[in-house]
Amino acid sequence: MRTAVVTGGSSGIGRAIAERLRKDGHRVAVLDLNPTGEEFEYKVDVSDRTQVDAALAEIRAELGPVTILVNGAGLELYKRFHNIDYDTWQKVVAVNLGGVFHCVQAVLPDMLEAGWGRIVNISSSSAQSGQQFMSAYVSSKAGVNGLTKSLALEYGPSGITVNAVPPGFVDTPMLRRSEEKGLLGGTLEDHIQRTPVRRAGKPEDIAAACSFLISEEAGYITGQILGVNGGRNT
Ligand code: NAP
């Protein structure tokens, strides 16, 4: 049994990951903007280092050193590039990439001390394909993939693996919000027909990949970007 932190763990993909890691036998703490009130959920904006450090101090005191981190918190933005003001761009990058920076730095001392760690970053298949009207989001997620590969090289010798899972088309509140606003580029059904396995992804599909990457037997896998996307952006 280890202590895991899942960011964005109160909704959608992050929530399924937190549930899966609990089933796998880990002690799980969640950092999220809007916690649902469950035990070991902390109200934290991952782009705010002071909040991240304060939550980590509490988590360590309650659950022990953190040796598993899944960065799932994410913020989407749909806007034509020439209409994005720089503050808005910075906000998306601060949450999606800066949040990973802060959380990884906050847990690394525990992992280095243990000589063992697992970090999984939830990026996005859009970083492989590009996505119109989502340049800030896609850029931040491409940054997450680059950071993942670099950290894998730096911390492999310390027993820490770092991988990314870019989801594609997973049925979550984020996806449903996009559909409601007509921003999906077609209906859910249109997308299902464009997906080789002919269904939308489930949050549990992403959680299963995370569970594997976190397991002992995945210790020789690091620096990888494991697409879980029904065959969409392979
Ligand atoms: P979701 O249901 O909206 O969950 C995202 C969670 O992150 C929410 O609980 C959200 O809180 C939280 N969050 C947002 N900003 C935060 C911040 N600054 N600090 C802490 N928590 C914050 O979306 P999802 O679809 O499960 O997405 C999970 C991850 O997968 C995201 O990183 C997303 O970019 C990525 N992803 C999803 C898909 C997909 O098809 N669904 C595809 C590619 C990538 P609030 O709800 O309070 O804002």
TrEMBL record:
Molecular functions per Gene Ontology: 3-oxoacyl-[acyl-carrier-protein] reductase (NADPH) activity
One Pfam match: adh_short_C2
Keyword line: Cell wall, Oxidoreductase, Secreted
Transmembrane segments: none
Catalytic activity: a (3R)-hydroxyacyl-[ACP] + NADP(+) = a 3-oxoacyl-[ACP] + NADPH + H(+)
All copies of domain Ketoreductase, residue ranges: 2-168
GO biological process entries: monocarboxylic acid metabolic process
Main location: secreted
Subcellular location: Secreted, Cell wall
Protein family: Belongs to the short-chain dehydrogenases/reductases (SDR) family.
NCBIfam families noted in UniProt: PRK12826.1-2
Protein name: 3-oxoacyl-[acyl-carrier-protein] reductase MabA
Organism name: Rhodococcus coprophilus
Lineage: Bacteria, Bacillati, Actinomycetota, Actinomycetes, Mycobacteriales
